[in-house]
Design brief:
Belongs to the glycosyltransferase 8 family. This is Hexosyltransferase. It is an enzyme of class 2 (transferase). It holds the Pfam family Glyco_transf_8. This protein is of the alpha/beta class. It has twelve helices and 13 strands. Helix content is 27%, strand content 15%. Helix 10 packs across helix 11. It is globular, with a radius of gyration of 23 Å.
Length: 364
């Protein structure tokens, strides 16, 4: 991918000779175009360069997390888990930036990034370190082959990525010293302090918390085959199941491990391979295991669906109420629409967190 930067200082003679300046610009642009690859398909996501984010500092009242032998195990810290891959890296960088900017104790946030074992981990590490030099984080390799054989095709191919299922294995991938974690998707930004979300109380019988949407048509998440089979549909007997979006969750990993919830999710995925009981990707197994038993979180912590539906990705408005987290779940992603010059109105709320370094810096 060819790069071209032209910045003309205020006292440059071309400032005062517009015709020569425009011809000079035209010549350089034509040269850049001729030097560029003939097909856009030759461009890779590794060509993306990101700016360094501003540094944010702790407030004086923040507890110290430096006293523990292993800082990544600190119970005083806010632990955040996210996945990393080349396709969504731009979204992940914006999400990290937004979390740090709105945190009262940004240096007390520890990030746990999960990436496939075949990803370019060195590139991911260098990219994050360049944009966030003080960030405390670790990258955990995830062997996607453990789940690839369990994935059944869904209504949108992007939902079938093995990395979408990494959240099933967080309790195994992350150090066992970590108890509570906030899991976040890569297509969101926070506009509030993540410590408030992390402080969601979980009682002794509750494994996870998330915003619930009990007015959604819950039956639509499973096939008629599922509902017509009493053995299957009785799964929800005795509980009031509500839809929740798995892109924003507070999880007690210790209780998850004790309850073998990874195995419970896998068992539903194995059944799905034999009898098609749902159409979406990684969401339905979570609903089957947890719906009706989670701790509810205020809806402001997941203003989801801003990417539109899974087919067309049409523009959506915010749900009524306060906003702490904006989530572009669905087909349309804000960076794709902004690049195509076809943004939705709410994509303007994501743009300030975009750290992508544009290849052309033209100043006239």
């Amino acid at each position: 991918m060819s790069k071209f930067a032209l910045v003309i200082p205020p006292n440059h003679p071309h400032r005062h000779h517009h015709h020569r300046h425009h011809l000079f610009l035209l010549f350089l642009l034509i040269s850049a175009i001729n030097a560029a690859p003939s097909s856009a398909t030759t461009t890779t996501n590794n060509d993306q360069k990101f700016k360094e984010a501003p540094q944010f500092y702790n407030a004086p009242t923040c507890p110290s997390i430096n006293g523990t032998t292993n800082e990544m195990c600190s119970h005083e810290a806010v632990h955040v888990a996210m996945t990393l891959d080349a396709a969504y890296l731009r979204g992940s960088m914006a999400a990290i930036f937004s979390i740090l900017q709105h945190s009262s104790c940004p240096q007390n946030i520890l990030f746990h990034f999960v990436s496939t074992s075949t990803a370019d981990h060195r590139h991911l590490l260098l990219t994050i370190t360049h944009s966030f030099p003080s960030l405390k984080f670790q990258i955990y390799p995830y062997d996607s082959s453990v789940v690839s054989g369990l994935i059944s095709t869904s209504i949108r191919s992007a939902l079938d990525s093995p990395l979408n299922y990494a959240r099933n294995y967080l309790a195994d991938l992350l150090p066992h010293c970590i108890h509570d974690i906030v899991y976040l998707d890569s297509d969101l930004v926070l506009v509030d302090d993540i410590a408030k979300l992390a402080a969601t109380p979980l009682d002794e019988n509750t494994v996870l918390a998330a915003p619930e949407y009990c007015n959604a048509n819950f039956t639509s998440y499973f096939t008629p085959t599922f509902w017509s089979n009493p053995t299957l549909s009785l799964t929800f007997a005795g509980r009031k199941p509500c839809y929740f979006n798995t892109g924003v969750m507070v999880i007690d990993l210790q209780k998850w491990r004790e309850g073998d919830y990874t195995i419970k999710i896998i068992e539903w995925m194995e059944l799905q391979k034999r009898i098609r009981i749902y159409e979406l990707g990684s969401l339905p197994p979570f609903l089957l295991v947890f719906a009706g038993t989670i701790a509810p979180v205020d809806h402001r912590w997941n203003q989801h669906g801003l990417g539109g539906d899974n087919y067309r990705g049409l523009c959506r408005n915010l749900h009524p109420g306060r906003v702490s987290l904006l989530h572009w779940s669905g087909k349309g992603k804000p960076w794709v629409r902004l690049d195509a010059n076809r943004p939705c109105p709410l994509d303007a709320l994501w743009a300030p967190y975009d750290l992508l370094q544009t290849p052309f810096a033209l100043e006239s």
